[in-house]
Amino acid sequence: MPFNFGNASIRVTGVGPWSVQWEYLETNRDVARRVLADLEDRRVLFYSHGREDPEYCRRSAAEIRQLMKRELSTVEQGDDMDRALRAIRNAAREFIDQAGPESERFLSDMDAFWKALEDMRIAMAPYIRGMATAYEVLIDHVLDENLPPFELRRTGS
After folding, report:
1. pLDDT of 98-127, one tens digit each?
2. For helices 28-39 and 110-134, angle between their N-to-C axes, nearest 10 degrees
3. Nearest to residue 121, comparing CAs of 44, 39, 51, 58?
4. DSSP β-ladder status, 20-25 and 8-15
5. What's residue 51's pLDDT?
6. 89, 72 Cβ separation under 8 angstroms
């Protein structure tokens, strides 16, 4: 069972008659810092004035998907960080699925590529910004400016 002491979290791994062994656990803030630092370097999330390459973007999305998969094993299942990592992973997976092997669908239909790319960015943006806000992690201003704006939608009449 983990114990929290301020910003640190520890798990007792052993208790002896005269000693206690423990390990430090990563916090969600640690995970958020690592994930956001990696995403800041993903050109697939940046607008390049129409110069994005479908295959390069597919590979970049695959790398994002693998990053999220690795990080999911470091967070508590079902918490906000878990949901954010899964949503980002799912958006990357959807983009990859739409691309087809070696981006063959996108290479033959650039309109489908641009739509899928925008859909992926729109799906990821609120989770990236939410992670940065919730865990007080600064993200590069260039990434923040390139993420699609988050729009609140009204429900009802």
Report:
1. 999 889 999 999 999 999 999 999 999 999
2. 150
3. 44
4. antiparallel
5. 83
6. yes
Of the candidates 141, 100, 148, 103, the one whose C-alpha atom is nearest the C-alpha of residue 124 is: 148
**Longest distance between any two alpha carbons in the chain, whole Å:** 69
* CB atoms near residue 115 (< 10 Å): 13
Q: Read off the tokens for 44.
A: 């697939």
Which token pair is 61? 């999305």
pTM of this structure: 0.81
Query: In which residue are the tokens 């062994």 written?
Result: 21
As given in the structure block, the two tokens for residue 139 are: 């993200």
Give me 102's structure tokens: 């070696």
Place of tokens 């990696």: 38
Joined together, the tokens standing for residue 66 give 């693998």
Of the two residues 27 and 26, the one the predictor is more confident about is 27
